Amino acid sequence: MLTIQDLFDLNDTIAAPLFRGKTYAWEVLGELSDYIKALGATLPADEYDHPAEDVWIAKDAKVFPSAYIGSPCIIDHEAEVRHCAFIRGSAIVGKHAVVGNSVELKNVVLFDYVQTPHYNYVGDSVLGSHAHMGAGSITSNVKSDKTLVVIREGEERMETGRKKIGAILGDYVEVGCNSVLNPGTVIGPHSNIYPTSSVRGTVPANSIYKDKDNIASKE
Predict the structure, then answer these.
(1) Per the structure, how many domains does the chain have?
(2) Does 212 fall in a domain?
């Protein structure tokens, strides 16, 4: 359930080449900045504006004047970056994606049609296509004891070697309002997270997460 193949349709991101040849999504996080710079330099000038160094914004994207766009960053076709969004850098915002009011992004890949519409923090994370984070939901990307993040699936432990990993959301994941996705959380495609949840470890695909002891399979 943890592999890139299990979680995403790579046809739904401009970052597909970054994922190819890798097994797990968190493996792209250390290469994301360099990938954006290299890809951005190849983007056609008739389709993408280049308003600042290492920043590329599709001409048909909508970026509100009060949004901050740090580098490196690519905002793809028909995306919307709303009032006071704070994109700190190393971010890919997919086609038709929404980065909403006061949302903060850092070192992330948002696949096409992702929605982070209201007061979300998404850091060191990958969100699959059509994933949606409810208002106030966040990814926590650093453990309280500052040790390296370990991905857990049942009794299996996978050492990542990274201090910062937020969450990996498969395609069509729905995260309820005011939920916290703890460092190294992986949620399988088409799963729903109840509002105000604190999630850690892995959630299988096609599941409804009520709490850590109540995870139901969708029928």
Answers:
(1) 1
(2) no
